[in-house]
Amino acid sequence: MVGKNCFAIASDRRLGVQLQTIATDFQRIFKIHDKLFLGLSGLGSDAQTLHQRLVFRHKLYQLREERDMKPETFASLVSAMLYEKRFGPYFVQPVIAGLGEDDKPFICTMDSIGAKELAKDFVVAGTASESLYGACESMFKPDMDHEELFETISQALVSSIDRDCLSGWGGHVYIVTPTEVTERILKGRMD
Amino acid sequence: MGDSQYSFSLTTFSPSGKLVQIEHALTAVGSGQTSLGIKASNGVVIATEKKLPSILVDETSVQKIQILTPNIGVVYSGMGPDSRVLVRKSRKQAEQYNLLYKEPIPVTQLVRETAAVMQEFTQSGGVRPFGVSLLVAGYDDKGPQLYQVDPSGSYFSWKASAMGKNVSNAKTFLEKRYTDDMELEDAIHTAILTLKEGFEGQISGKNIEIGVIEADRTFRRSPDCSSNRRLSSRGRVAVSFSFRRCFKYPE
Q: What's the confidence (pLDDT) of residue A142?
């Protein structure tokens, strides 16, 4: 979700195989660099593998070009990597959020074969996505500061995942401003 | 010298630690037509002689200065056909980068990849090094940049450089004339004067080529402007004036 010169990215914490819960602290949001975060929903193993591959690509990019990747560039890279596997795809839906040039917030999501969807306000992914769309649409306001943004995204997340049987066990929220990154854990219905 | 016994194979070092084929490649470059480049504070200019073998050759079909991407251009000294191969490969590499990142390739990255290609041909079997040195001029987020790439694959960033036949005189001339805060107009003027220094015969718009890139990040070449066709061959001022008109400088 985009705020005023800041953004927030949040996920739930459940890792499960249909009805069985395997972990209640699964990390789904990864930091690529200080101003770029990637959330990967979907198959757990594909999420981890894709994350490792992207970190690999980004590290080489940093070494060669002596600079961090812009969020737009990173999104194009993720899209290209997903489409490479067009006929045997990664079963993930990435959510990319970052601060671009002049610290302008950038968010986007894509489907599992790399179709980018840019948005100015919020993007959602996962099993509870329909519920999230509704919650975000009603709660979102443009140009929120980071405190208000935290409240809004937390409420939207918790209310959606609590209603979804395959998501839950709390939430993990990152608020990123040009100067700092705040990480908070939310308590929802622990089931 | 013992070295000549090792000049048969590119991939064999001579006892003095040189790869003789690369030395020969540099000689090929040194006998090519002069080309030079100057980096100004707000842009880069590259220029070359365009001496055609006969007056019957249609000079509009000959393009020594080539565009690699909209914001990067290149000129060579040495064997024309070799430079065409490199230009083709560089353009492809630049486009691949663009396809992947949806961003124009930074000049340093393109130079690095082109140099890697040239180096490959100094370490493979059955091939010979490229007989060209390239001057790559571009403008990206880091500002105006000028790189020279040699047949060995080594590359350097230059403030001003020359290659080809008249290289030592040209470099001396450039060393005297170059200032760090030079503007693009002065740089173009200096480039033409430097070419004129070693020019055999009368310099005119038809036997030199100039490429310029400034803050708008669009590479422009002189033959694409029609205003330089009619050139007074008297004096340097007349020559540079028509090129300036050609590039439409802001007042």
A: 94
Q: Which residues of A touch B112 (CB under 8 A)?
A: 64
Amino acid at A167: S
Q: How far is A76 from chain B (nearest CA, A)?
A: 5
Distance separating alpha carbons of residues B203 and B192, to the nearest angstrom: 9
Which residues on B lie below 8 Å from A65 (Cβ)?
A: 106, 108-109
Measured between CA atoms, how close is B100 to chain A, in angstroms? 6
ipTM of the complex: 0.83
CA distance A21 to A12: 13
Q: How far is CA A140 from the centre of its chain?
A: 17
The per-residue pLDDT for B251 is 27
Q: What is the mean pLDDT of chain A?
A: 94
> Mean pLDDT across chain B, nearest whole number?
85
β strands within chain A, DSSP E: 7-12, 15-17, 20-23, 29-33, 36-42, 92-99, 105-110, 116-119, 171-176, 181-186
User: With pLDDT > 90 as the criterion, what percentage of chain A qualifies?
Assistant: 95
Give the residue from chain A lying closest to B112, CA to CA.
A64
Q: How many residues does chain A have?
A: 191
Tell me the pLDDT tens digit for each residue of B33-76: 999 999 999 999 999 998 888 889 888 888 899 999 999 999 99
| Chain B residues with CB-CB distance to A63 below 8 A | none
Q: Say whether residue A73 is in contact with chain B using an 8 A CB cutoff.
A: yes
| CA of B106 vs chain A CAs: smallest distance (Å) | 8
B100, B106, B112: residue with CB nearest A76:
B100
If you average pLDDT over residues A68-93, what whole number do you get? 96
Q: In Å, what is the CA distance from B197 to each residue of A161, B46, B193, B194, B211?
A: 77, 16, 6, 5, 19
Nearest CA of chain B to the CA of A74: how many Å? 7
% of chain B at pLDDT higher than 70: 85
Using CA atoms, how far apart are residues B131 and B24, in angstroms rounded to an integer?
A: 9
Average pLDDT of the segment spanning A48-75? 95
d(CA A35, CA B147): 32
Residue of chain B with shortest Cα separation from A63: B109
Mean pLDDT of A160-176: 92
Interface of A with B in 106-165 (CB under 8 A): none
